[in-house]
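Quick one: PKD domain containing protein from Actinoplanes missouriensis, C-alpha cells please.
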Amino acid sequence: MRRRLLAAAAAASVVVPVLAGALPAMADRALPAVVSTDPVDWTPHVLDGTVWALALVGDTVVVGGAFTKVADARRQTTLNRKNVFAFGLHDGQIRTFAPQVDGAVYSLAAGGDHTVYLGGAFKSVNGTSQRGVARVSVNTGERLGSFSTRLNWGDVRALATRGDRLYMGGTFSAVNGVGRVGLARLNANTGAVDQGFDARLTGPGLKRTRVEHFDVSPDGRKLIAVGAFLKAAGADRTQIALFDVGGPGAVLSGWYTDAYKPPCMKGFDTYLRQVKFAPDGSYAVVAATGRASSAQKLCDSAARFETGSAGRHNPTWVQRTGGDSLYAVAVTGPAVYLGGHQRWFDNPYGTDGNGPGPGAVSRPGIGAVSPNTGKALPWNPTRSRGVGVRAFLVTEQGLLVGSDTDQLGREYHGRVGLFPS
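--- reply ---
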C-alpha cells in the first residue's frame, strides 16, 4: 500500500528553511509495536555514497555520511549536499541546511538551541579548520565558534549528548592537548575536556586503540563501548566495556564478558560494530562482523547482554547470520532491528558461500528479532544488501534507516527510508 499522507506537502517547494525556535529533542526509542514493512513515500533520496549517521533535532532529521547529491521524494529536483543535509521528519522536505564539510560525517548528536554535533573524518567546516568534531546551527548551517575542540588526529565515530555533556568516541588519542584514547567527555557548550573523565582504554599489541561505537543509557548513568581495545582502567575488557558515568568520572563497572575474546577472521582488530541499550537500560545488544568460522564464536552475530549486575556475563541469546556482517542495531521494546549485508537469520549452521543451514530464514539486508529469544520475527521488508545498513534512528514516527543502497521495502529509496509506526 502506497502512503500518500503528505503528498501535497511534498509536492510543494522542496527546499525550506528550518523553523526558528524549535526545541532540541532526543529520540524516544520505545515504540508500542513492530513498525510497518512499507516505507513512507515522501522521504528524500541520497543519490551516491553512504549514509553513516542520523539525528533528530526538533522536527528535523539530520543525515550524515559520504555523499555529494540528494533529491526530493519525486526525484524532480537534485541538490548538491556534501556529506550532510537535513529534511523534515513529517513531510520529507529538504532543508536549506548545507554546511560545507570536507570529509565524511560518521556520527551526529542533537544539541541545544537547535544545533547538531557532527563527528567524522573531516578537517574543516565552512572553510574553518575544525578536525573531527564540530557544532553547527540547524537553522543556518553556521559553525559555532564557541564550541572549540581540537583532535590531535584521527576521526570521531560516535557521539551522544546528555544534558550539558557531550560524549565522543573514535580513533583519536588526545583532545585539546589532553590525552584521551578513543573516548572522551566534553562540555557540550564549550568543547572543553572533562578532566575527571578518562576511560583509560588500551590495546596492547593492537595497531590502534579505538572506540567503534558506544551508547549511553536513557537515564545517563551507564555507557557501554565497543571497539579495538583489550583493557579499560587497567582491567581486562576485550572489545567491550561498561562504565558508570552518572558521577564526575568514568568508573569501570564490575560487569564484563569474555564472549568476544575468541578471534574471528585474521585482520579484525575489532569485529564489534554497534551497541545499543534497551529503552529501559536493562540490557544491550551488540552487532558484529568478523567472518564466522564456527557456531561457537560471536562473529557475524547479534547478541543480547544483561547489564544490571556486576560479574562475568554470557549472552542471553545470540542471533547468527552464518557468515554475513551486521553493522547496525536498534532496540525499541517489541523488536530488535538489525541491519547489515546478511542474507539469513537463525542460521548458526550456515556458512558464507555454502548457502543457508537448517532452520535459516531469508532476511536480506534488514530484519527484526525478538528481544526475548533473539529469534527472527516475521518482519521482512527486504533491502538491496550492498555493504550494509549503517544507521537506525527510532522516532515517534517510526524507524529511519540509513545505508548505501537504493532499494528498501521493495521500493526505490535512495539510502534513506522510514518505516512508519
